[in-house]
Amino acid sequence: MTTGPSTVLIIKQSLRGRRSGILTVLGNETGVFVWGVVAACGLTALLAASEFAYDVLRIVGAAVLVVFGIQTLRQARRADGRQAEADWAGTEKSDWAAYRGGLLLNLANPKAAIFALSFLPQFVPEGAPHLPTMIGLAALWAVYETGYYSMYVWFVGRMKAVLSRRGVRRRLEQVSGGVLLLLGARLALES
Prior knowledge:
This protein has helices spanning 5-14, 18-40, 44-49, 51-77, 81-88, 92-107, 110-119, 130-158, 160-163, 166-189. By secondary structure, it is mostly helical.
């Protein structure tokens, strides 16, 4: 397993606080569930069959990663780290932004769609109703990942004293931004 864009974004948001991290996880897992339902309806087969559709989603996904990377690097460059934290502290806008960021990142990931299409159907038992079984599997997938990514949020929360130091926080923001940019570039250049 390697760190993917979802993991990077969840860790980055968890540095802002547990609430932000959990909301990012919930947004990401909403995207997982949506891809599972889309796969159940057979629409992700379009991505697998149409190179054009896959390329469009791939470029959109790359653009999303690059935008998140640039935003993260800008936050790292802010002179006063406390101001960056205050921008996110306890506002509804930040809650929605954390959830939306996780959701958007997942929905813009063509690999999540292809994974849902190729992974979930193999677990539908012979003779079982396809649509409800696939939706159940998508829900199970989302619940499992919610627990998995919540461990990252918990760990970052436990390390808050160390990770909240201005220099450490700034370096983590720089690394996160750079990783998001690299992942975006890699996704854009894949064929």
